[in-house]
Amino acid sequence: MEISHRTRTLLKVIVLGDSGVGKTSLMNQYVYKKFSQQYKATIGADFVTRELQIDGKLITLQIWDTAGQERFQSLGPAFYRGADCCVLVYDININKSFDKINNWHDEFLHQVTENKAREWCASRGNIPYIETSAKEGYNVDEAFLRVAKISLDNERVQDIYFHGISETASEIEQRRSCAC
Hints:
Elements: E1 9-16, H1 23-32, E2 45-54, E3 57-66, H2 76-80, E4 85-88, H3 95-99, H4 101-111, H5 114-123, H6 140-163, H7 169-176
Parallel strand pairs: 1-3, 1-4
Antiparallel strand pairs: 2-3
């Protein structure tokens, strides 16, 4: 089966769970087919990619390994942005890690609001949705370029509408004025 480059899809996957439950081990086993007994806490976050084929489409999984330590949880929203899904991980030998799965799930859903915003835009006549960051300069130029293009398109539609009117404003005024 031939794979077209047009069918390539990038999916961002976030791996969440308490510190020490095996998030990094799970990710390394999937991507590199390796396991290490040594424990080394993840600082902040890291990501790896793996490609797979599903129904003739080439899928690139961008898998984000996040730190489970509480001191890094404030970084979560930055890593969750643009995520398509999350994998919740717990250690079957540590009941507390399972009990906290709901917290991880709720935090992820609270932070990933892009889909909700896209749905809102779509329900109001397909208003364009563009995420930007003034701080990072992300998508700022693209957003304003999009605004300009939409404005130009709207202006052209109005030009077409007014083009069909044969009289000018001065001709209308001349007809209304008194010849006295």
